[in-house]
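Exercise 3.2. Students should predict the tertiary structure of the chain below and write it as structure tokens, then compare their answer with the key that follows.

Predict this chain's 3D structure.
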Amino acid sequence: MQNLFLPGDHQLYNHSDSACAYLDLRTTVGIDVCEYPGSNKINILPDLEIYESSSKVDYYKGEEKVKDRWPDEVVNKR
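Answer key:
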């Protein structure tokens, strides 16, 4: 296998004799989200916002009674 990375770069290594396909997807132009399972971190680039994966929360956490925060005229509009 040809090494296409310089020392210190993040690397992919195929530990088998089978072909390896790598797909790199971007969520938005200029933003990249990387998860590093070995160090339990998530990195948001280009701002270098680094978080521990253990701080993940459910999407709806804190949204249990969101209707109670809306004005009555919006909630009861028919």
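Discussion points: The longest strand covers residues 32-36. The mean pLDDT is 77.
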